[in-house]
Amino acid sequence: MNPEKLAKLQAQGRSGSKGTPRRVIKKVHRAVAQDDRKLQGALEKLALSNLPYVEEVNMFKEDSTILHFRAPKVHASTTSNTYAVYGRGEEKEMTELVPGILNQLGPDSLASLRRLAQSYQQSAAGQAAMAASGITAEDLADDDEVPDLVESFEEASVEEEAKA
Predict the structure, then answer these.
(1) Residue ranges of the NAC-A/B domain (predicted)?
(2) What's the rounded mean pLDDT across residues 144-148?
């Protein structure tokens, strides 16, 4: 066979003789729904049920950063204390989410927030930002809502009755 004819046939992209259809490369696209079905099956095996209407999930890390999920899919089994949160998560600093997460903070996070506020308040940019948001250092350091711990609740109640 002539090498020039062979090169010409290869350039045409046909696999057979004249009149045969050209080769079409089929690209197989996997649907996301198929992966979602596998995940749903695994969650059902763990007896997790869907929790609708969850707007956001914040996971607090020890280094004062927050793993923030906006509109995640949440599945839970409250009896076994198991939760599955999946979606697009973003790692954010605590200062970015402060006004919206104050009611979610625990005692450890509040302590780190106080330290962060004190260091932030010393900088000029921090003073301007806190003035714009309306948050003061006194607001963060206010412990009036937390009662003092007593050794015995009965003794404390007896003392309160005696005062009254």
Answers:
(1) 33-98
(2) 60
